[in-house]
Specification:
The complex is a heterodimer. Chain A is mainly α. Chain A is built from nine helices and three strands, in the order H-H-H-H-E-H-H-E-H-H-E-H. Chain A has a three-stranded antiparallel sheet with strand order 2-1-3. By secondary structure, chain B is of the alpha/beta class. Chain B has a single domain (22-191), classed as Rossmann fold. Helices cover 30% and strands 23% of the residues of chain B. Chain B has five helices and seven strands, in the order E-H-E-E-E-H-E-H-E-H-E-H. Chain B has helices spanning 36-44, 96-100, 116-127, 141-153, 170-191, and strands spanning 22-30, 49-53, 66-76, 79-85, 105-110, 132-137, 162-165. In chain B, helix 1 (36-44) crosses helix 5. The chains are: A mainly alpha, B alpha/beta. The interface between A and B is large, with 58 and 61 residues.
Chain lengths: 181, 205
């Protein structure tokens, strides 16, 4: 019975590779500048286990950046195992949505994945997820990229033509949409 | 409660499973205090959201979080239009690239009292061939043609539409966005290579 959560925790630890990268990242922050650098590996699991996102009212966005927020950003990078790149191409306007698999997995997901699934019951853009979860864009891209690779969210690609310019069909759609507004 | 637009419930997502969803974005640039947020707020109805861009390679500077405001409006049941306030610094590490890449185009809000503030953005969009319109922030009609003549004299491409816009007025914002998208569409047509391409009717200026 109790083996299941244990296994889950072990899996999470096993998924925290690249301590070196993470340590580098941690050292880059100025929060502990007065202290001597400590080897990061022992810290990683503990920080990862800390609930990062406080369940505050998602509708309120304070314009000031508080220290607590900064600290949560440091922890947020711990989620991603220190990685700063995603394997999946995500633009800030790319829409993601929860799918059947993620709905069925409710309750066994990591807390942050759970939060994304809840947010994405209606499609949300990467930028919206970043804003509503109060996390830096880079962290959200890695998080969503991971979830997409595991099939936990669907990614709806933008209609940019292979690169940097949206195609004519999309522009036509934007135009008629604007005219209806 | 929800950020999903409530003004047009019939356009509200999500559609049935398998419906194609996609998104587009438009950048709103210009000097400080020229009305970029107001412009976006006028069309998206819900209050703006703020996203933090923390460039990983510069993670040492927590205080240098770049805050990017944006709003979203569903244009049809599968198309979400995002409007982003362009960051003040044209620095790829400061989220500028994320905001500009793949955009339909840009609206540069232009305050006649502080023209220099908007020039950096105009120069960037000219250099990178990103379609943009110049939106004069509420210039009185009596001097509008003079102002336009001065702006044309600054050497921007003759193709760039120069429109008058009150960022507080929804219809005015909508007209500006329509001008931009029409301009962007035409621009896209012109750049399409191939002998069999025909040019659509040129807009009446």
């Amino acid at each position: 019975m109790s083996s299941s959560p244990d296994a889950h925790r072990r899996r999470k630890r096993a998924e925290t590779p690249a301590e070196q990268t993470f340590a580098d990242l941690m050292n880059g922050f100025s929060l502990n500048s007065g202290r001597k650098r400590s080897p990061a590996p022992e810290q990683v699991p503990a920080r990862e286990a800390t609930p990062v996102v406080r369940q505050e009212d998602a509708g309120v966005f304070e314009p000031s950046v508080q220290e607590a927020h900064d600290a949560s950003i440091v922890r947020a990078y711990a989620w991603t195992g220190g990685r700063t790149r995603s394997n999946i191409d995500l633009e800030i306007e790319t829409l993601v949505s929860a799918n059947d698999q993620s709905r069925q997995s409710a309750g066994i997901l990591q807390a942050e994945h759970q939060r994304v699934v809840e947010l994405c019951h209606s499609p949300r853009s990467v930028a919206e997820v970043a804003a509503l979860m109060r996390l830096p864009l880079g962290v959200v891209k890695v998080l969503l990229g991971d979830m997409a690779e595991r099939g936990l969210v669907d990614v709806h690609q933008t209609a940019s033509a292979g690169g940097d310019t949206p195609d004519l069909g999309l522009m036509e759609r934007v135009l008629s949409g604007l005219r209806r507004l | 409660m929800d950020y999903v637009g409530s003004r047009f419930p019939e356009f509200g997502p999500p559609g049935p499973p398998g419906r194609e969803l996609t998104s587009a974005k438009i950048v709103v640039a210009g000097g400080f205090g020229v009305g970029k947020s107001t412009f976006i707020r006028s069309i998206v109805e819900n209050d703006l959201l703020t996203m933090n861009a923390l460039p990983p390679e510069r993670a040492g500077a927590v205080t240098e979080l770049v805050r990017i405001q944006f709003g979203r409006v569903w244009l049809d049941p599968g198309l979400a239009l995002h409007l982003f306030v362009a960051p003040q610094w044209q620095d790829p590490r400061a989220g500028w690239g994320d905001v500009v890449r793949g955009a339909v185009g840009a609206v540069v809000l232009f305050d006649v009292m502080r023209p220099a503030d908007s020039v950096d953005a105009m120069r960037y969009f000219e250099d990178h061939r990103i379609p943009y319109v110049l939106a004069l922030n509420n210039v009185h009609s009596s001097v509008r043609s003079d102002v336009k003549a001065i702006i044309r004299g600054m050497g921007i491409s003759p193709d760039v539409p120069v429109v008058n816009c009150d960022p507080r007025v929804r219809l005015s914002v909508r007209e500006t966005l329509i001008s931009l998208t029409e301009h962007a569409k035409l621009d896209r047509w012109r750049r399409r290579a191939g002998p069999d391409e025909t040019t659509p009717l040129a807009p009446v200026c």
